[in-house]
Amino acid sequence: MENIDDKYFETKCVHSGIKEYEYGPVVPPIYQTSTFKFKSAGHGAALFAGEEKGYIYTRMGNPTVEAMEDSVAELEGGHKALGCGSGMAAVHTVFATLTQTGDHVVCSHAVYGPTTTLLNSVMKRYGVQTTFVDASNIDEVRDAVTSKTRVIYIETPGNPTLAISDIEAIAAIAHKNEASLVVDNTFMSPALQKPFEFGADIILHSMTKFLNGHADVIGGVIVVKDEETYREFRKTLNQLGGVIDPFNSFLVHRGIKTLALRMERHCESASIIAEYLVSHPAVEKVMFPGLPSHPQFELAKKQQKGPGGLISFELKGGCRAGQNMMNSIKLFQLAVSLGGVESLIQHPASMTHASMGKEVRTAAGITDGLVRLSIGIENVKDLMLDLEQGLEKVDKVRDVVVN
Ligand code: LCS
Questions:
Q1: Cβ–Cβ under 8 Å, residues 219 and 191
Q2: How does pLDDT run across 370-403, given as a tens digit for each residue?
Q3: Of residues 70, 134, 184, 245, which has the active-site annotation?
């Protein structure tokens, strides 16, 4: 790369979204204000009419929020971004903007539980029907599309099975049918995957995860490719009101500075741990995009720059063994969420994906014995020692029933 304006990804993580502010601060100030004074009645009217640029009211825009939004938009290679109060607020805003009564959505089985539940409850009540498919099978996606399909929605890798969908092939199906392809890029972050480069129309993230990276913020973001789409989304978000606040935006923007570094460590340590789990006698199956045994290993190499920091695995002793292990582990924290500097362990069937119900979970390949790890940035040797002592105890305690 020869042009100083292009910048490498690591450099963008540090500098993106930063502007000139009064007194020359190196990081954006936290404009912790709900509203902004107008210079005159005419000025206020001009701002509302969109004839002048400026800030009105923090739900409609705020400089600290905007700095973070511009950073994410630049890292994803998009036009603009919209900060949301949570990943789910971003998911809801996407469906509320792109669909109306009578429309149809094709959604991957392998998505965060509440995304499935949102489509099966709120969106269904509003008359939007969804067909869930195994989006790693391109024929299933193609067959599910109807003349009413407005959105194809995928998470890749999917939560928690780490199934991978072909963004480029699905974008082609979407565009042939005048539908939008929405990609939840939470598990990869723009450090590892750039869905726009493969034809996605909308990207969203739970910023609660890798983008912030420090388990101290709930936030979401939507990234779009053009001004017209941005305005449509901004209108909906202003009405729904699920915006992020300035302080949380500041924290996410700060977290992003180390995104490239953190993702390198997440990938490196997760790769070592996945290999270790494969060779462990108590482990039945390991799902990790960096393993050649992953069914979409070649696709992962094509569209991902790394395998990511999530590993799902099944123990030979099933659910009981998984529960025993989770109760024995010391350094990994038994908690939902993912993508932070600290390693976490959780049980999707009884936790993150419990709301889906057993039937929907089974169709999505989420078995009762599946355990999910989010690998943090601790020394990998400490993590392995902890797993080793946890895996020694898999057979010791009573079973757990998951409804
Ligand atoms: N998309 C993905 C891929 C997610 O993993 C999550 C949350 C969301 C969207 C929703 O984001 P939130 O509203 O929580 O910011 N995933 C979680 C998980 O696996 N454990 O706890 C939360």
A1: no
A2: 999 999 999 999 999 999 999 998 865 444 455 5
A3: 184
